[in-house]
């Protein structure tokens, strides 16, 4: 292929591209022919001549004159102790040593041969007795060892001139860290299998560079070995077993020296780290960064906590305001309800007082102290307690409009009829609900009756009344005992619990004739009202204005209940004792129980006094 190259363009010429050359295709060729052979031979002779000239020039450069001290050192060598000699010193390379090249070793040996070969010395008139014992054999030994890379490495590993010292940890070495430790690491880097050991660096080295340096030295791989120090040559063994034993002993010694070398390098690195000011600087920076991060974290946490507390306070304040508004609204509603309730109570109290006053003015429409008088007092009390306010108000208006006692008696009889009709309706409703399995409000029987779908029968309600009389208040597990009694005697096989029985007793008492609201008064409320025969004839006139103040005779049953209650509730209970005793007696108040107790005490005392007086009179007569 021919490539046409044009000359440079002048000022008036223009340049342009009209196409491109095709890619060159590589071809293989073999140089042959007589002309090529002649050319090749001529070129080879020139190169050989140039190389020989260069070798002579280099040899001339490294050849130095021997000093009398060096000649004296060589002549004093003992061929038998060749292993203890300094081979570099023998060849005159004591200043180069490990760094001497093969060319330098070869040139040094050539120089020594020219000066100390036995033939050269004999030609100069020196007498050489035995070549084998001549010191020249030491020069030959040194050359043979240093020319062999493996043997030279073995010798370099134990070079006596190498400084194996490790700088200690001291304030002086810390102050002059780089000046002290840099040359130590540089000379120990020669043992590294990996080339290009990282330098120690300076004060401005980055943390990555420092970490790389120490990681390299902590993972240092050394080629240093100690076969040159073998005490015995295994080739001297007479048989295979002896040679193996020698080799094993040599390996043990080498391994020991290798471990010592590893410890030395690690000690060097540890001491360097302890003295390195950069490590302390990095640690201080890391500590400072950690403290800053911790402080930042605490600040963020504190800010978050403050924000949460502020939000919580806002929510609490909003909740408080809302709660206050609700409480104010509830309070206003309660006050309004209380006012309405108080007004209703006041109105009820007024109507009650008015009705009782008008009845009292009419002498309760019966002769004072008679049975009818007591009956009317009870009716008046029931009317003012049971009838609704509208009915009571209407009755008062009608009675107030009447002036004659007979007319007012008619209004009173009408009120009694209304009361009896109301009580009868409520009783019938209760009984019908119990028979149908529904409560008084029309709900399921399970809400207030026994736990079954059939409700309470009339027989079971009679048994309930009887059981309450048999097991008065104060009986242990009273309502469980009552439930068991009803289950045993009903014959239906229905299993009742204490809660069902108590609820039913309260329900029956609620619409009875009694004025107490607890289940314990159920039987009293279910019994017929007391007649005037049970009253005391000599009742004071001023105590007849209220039904609660009327003195009534105590029946045998009430007397037994009182005695049992006095035993059940001891005097140690204090004022609460009479409240609990009154709860046992359905139709007796706390005041009546206390008065009855005092009367009994006085009766017993009077009886004892009478007996004592009678005994004294009898004794006097005798």
From TrEMBL:
Residue numbers spanned by region Disordered: 285-345, 436-455
Keyword Mitochondrion belongs to the record: no
GO molecular function, one term: ribosome binding
J domain ranges (all copies): 86-159
GO biological process, one term: 'de novo' cotranslational protein folding
Domain SANT: 549-605
Entry's localization field: Cytoplasm, Cytosol; Nucleus
Domain Myb-like: 456-502, 554-601
Example of a GO cellular component annotation carried by this entry: nucleus
Pfam family, one: DnaJ
Domain of life from the UniProt record: Eukaryota
Keyword entries, A-Z: Activator, Chaperone, Chromatin regulator, Cytoplasm, Nucleus, Repeat
Ranges where the HTH myb-type domain occurs: 552-605
InterPro entries: DnaJ_domain, DnaJ_domain_CS, Homeodomain-like_sf, J_dom_sf, Myb_dom, RAC_head, RAC_head_sf, SANT/Myb
PANTHER family: DNAJ HOMOLOG SUBFAMILY C MEMBER 2
Stated name of the protein: DnaJ homolog subfamily C member 2
Organism: Varroa destructor
